[in-house]
Amino acid sequence: MTTRRTEYPAGAPGEGAAGGQARPGFLVPGSAVGDGRYRLLAEFGLDERVNAHLWRAQDNQLRRDVGLTMLVGDPADAKAAGAARKMLERTMHAARITHPGTSRVLDVLGPGNGIGPTEGLLGIVVADWSHGTDLVDVIAEHPLPPSTAARLLEPLAAAVELAHHSGMVLGVDHPQRVRVTPDGVLRLSFPGPLPEATLQDDVRGLGAILYLLLTGRWPLRNAPGLPHAPLAADGQVVPPRALFPYVPYELSSAAVRSLTDDATGGIRTSSGLLRVLERAKLNEDATQSIAAITDDPEEDVDDDGAVWTTRRPHNDRTKRRKLAIGVTALAVATVGVLAWVGMQLISFFGDDSPSAGGPTVVATAPGNAENNPKPPNPGQPIQAAGVQVYNVKGTPDSPRRANRAVDGDPKTSWKTDKYQQPFPALKPGVGIMAAFAEPVPFAEVVIDSPSAGTVVEIRTAPSEKPGLDETKVIGRATLQSGQNRLQLDSAEPTQHLLIWITTLGDGNVSEITEIGFVRAQ
Predict the structure, then answer these.
(1) Which residues, at least 6 apart from 178, have a Cβ–Cβ distance to it below 8 Å?
(2) Distance between CA atoms of 276 and 349, rounded to whole angstroms?
(3) C-alpha distance from residue 335 to each of 3, 197, 306, 329, 474 (Å)
(4) DSSP readout, 374-402?
(5) Contact call for residues 113 and 197 (beta carbons, < 8 A)
């Protein structure tokens, strides 16, 4: 595995640095800083927001490698000098944090205190050198499996949580400040919180790193050298699951929710994100388990001589148990498929008369009789990028549980409130609005529900929060208990689809276990 260095365009010394920053002529391998104590070896990044150059260096006194965060600037510039001084003070406070997720700060230098007056530096943070790999290099070829991403990020999130408990900002909002250690831990290797950084900036940085691990793209705008995350029509970052459908919904949602300041839907604390990461590790799927115990691991060696691999030891009883469960489930599924094929053949060659035990499919397009559904229109399933409760009057119904309707887990569900009077006495209806990464032509919507008698409409919408009169009905059905396939009468592409409940089930409450979406061919 190669190690990424910051590269600058050709030109005279001090000209043409990446992103418009001037490259100091004295910052070259072999030169010395800090009154000659630290010999520069290689540059590993540039945080342009504070002109902080990130280097690996050798301590000439103690004969060991260190990581240097060097703040470049003119000491006569009062504004820059003041910002650097505040950044150094915050770093000294955060140096009290001891955790595997952050490098130990060894020293903090300033002009007249370890930095000579002619060095052109406003400050230096000296930290233990983190052997391993650059974070950016880890995802250079392809994103990581979701469980691996969660496992890598958890120690860094735990370090942030420890700092926040003490009221201190760690400063994890830049990808080049983070490295991956040989034992598979993300570590803040170049400490130094920005002068105005907040606790929420740390949470946002963790979400951005999670997004990067899952997609290979950076969702913030502070690292111009990285591929940017795509934006949806509303200007928001597209969820990772919309780019890679195998990403679990909760992990995809957590990455996006960590990036927002929205008090109602955003993740605002590191502890909230930490809980999601812990669950993601526990919910590792069987496919990843099989890959993790392969007998032919391909280990990568970087130029430190350090070995880093995302695979865990082969002799893992838990993994073998998961593999056995996965093989058993596959065998059961195979038997089920064969039985289904047999039934289809019997039906094909048998009596054409309708059976008393026919399918429980109730779906119509507007104007059609509800007991005369269209024949199925096969297509490709598509996963929603996000869902939320759509409400036009009163308070939303269980808004925090909306994602349970699309999480793929039949044991979870979204449920409306229980109403004393049926619709439309208190409100005209309630629904789930699904958003997709791009406009899609839909053939059908599949709804699993135990609430027989619920009447739903499928409506296209121009945005996530339109007026009800701006939506268009393209399907309607009265649900039976179980799976219901609603055939749609329009293949016009749309990026937002509303499942709108106009009549509640028994007891004036409706429950939806799962919603599936099938694109038109």
Answers:
(1) 135, 156, 172, 186, 187, 188, 189, 209
(2) 51
(3) 49, 57, 47, 10, 37
(4) PPP----EE--SEEEEE-SSSS-SSGGGG
(5) no
Reported as half-sphere exposure (CB side, CA atoms, 13 A), residue 265 has a value of 15
Cα 68 from Cα 139, distance rounded (Å): 24
**DSSP 8-state secondary structure symbol assigned to residue 520:** -
| d(C-alpha 499, C-alpha 390), whole Å | 9
User: In 3D, which of 44, 49, 41 has the Cα closest to residue 19?
Assistant: 49
What is the rounded end-to-end Cα distance, in angstroms, of the chain? Answer: 42
Q: What is the 3-state secondary structure (H, E, C) of 312-326?
A: CCCCCHHHHHHHHHH
Residues 63-78 pLDDT 10s: 999 999 999 998 888 9
Contact partners, residue 255, CB within 8 Å, separation at least 6: 207, 210, 211, 214, 219, 239, 240
pTM: 0.56
Count of Cβ atoms closer than 10 Å to residue 149 Cβ: 28
The first and second tokens of residue 321, run together, are: 């148990």
Q: pLDDT tens-digit profile of 275-321? A: 888 887 766 543 343 333 333 333 333 334 333 443 334 444 444 44
| Distances 415 to 264, 341, 465 between C-alpha atoms, Å | 19, 35, 20
